[in-house]
Amino acid sequence: MSLNVELLNCRRLTTGILFPTRQFTPGELNRLYATVTERHPFQTLQHLPDGIRMANPENDCVVQGGQIPQPGRIQVNDNNIFHFEPAKERTLDLFDLVCTHLNIQQFLTFGVKLTAFLPSEGETAAEVLENSVFAGFRSHLALLGEGRQGTGFRVVLRTDGAYDLRIEPFFTDLTQLYIELDVQYPEPFSGLAPVEEKMNRAYRFLNEDVRELLRQLS
Q: Hey, which residues does 16 pair with through a beta bridge?
């Protein structure tokens, strides 16, 4: 067996909300940083032309008011997560702190990106994909010449949101598969209440549907 899907590990969580263009004063943003760092250990504050970036070595939060026609955005990047639930709770708390402090109540769209890794056993991740997904096509890949490091595939779905799934070898370490799921929910909404369920839906798709797909590759 080349893939043990029980080892599928979500390591990165990126979430973003777009909102109608706003202008923030430096004072508002400095006070926001003071409020946020009472609960979240960001170590640096970087002022941007239309907002701020709060960061520590493993995650950051960007708040930008936007410039017409570009909307404003709040983006949270958690780059070294061990479990989805605590990472989700941190993200939701950051969204709540930012939106409460800056009085943001109307939103244009929400997106979530999950990045996961799955180690292969016996074969490299590149061999796993070429011996399963690309088994009937493998000989044709030789037409591209020598030096092929691996192949991957991408699936785009339109259901309750726009799902963009990439599965490929992790090219800096071919013993692992790289799985990236980017889900966009393009409908405007009011208040932050819908955000948690949208995050949960994306994670369920990765943890259940994508996991079962990977099981079939074994």
A: 75, 111
Of the candidates 114, 116, 89, the one whose C-alpha atom is nearest the C-alpha of residue 203 is 114
DSSP for 39-57, written as a single string: TS---EEEEETTEEEEE-S
- Cα distances (angstroms) measured from residue 59 to each of 13, 42, 101, 133, 204: 10, 8, 21, 35, 23
**C-alpha atoms less than 13 angstroms from C-alpha of 43 in its C-beta half-sphere:** 4
Q: Domain boundaries in the chain?
A: 5-217
DSSP annotation of 124: -
Radius of gyration of the chain (CA): 20
Using CB atoms within 10 Å of the CB of residue 78, give its burial: 0 to 12 exposed, 13 to 18 middle, 19+ buried: buried
Q: What is the pTM of this model?
A: 0.92
**In this structure, are strands 109-119 and 9-19 parallel, antiparallel, or unpaired?**
antiparallel
Distance, CA of 17 to CA of 20 (rounded, Å): 10
Q: Is the pLDDT of residue 1 over 50?
A: no
Lowest mean pLDDT among 88-92, 136-140, 181-185: 136-140
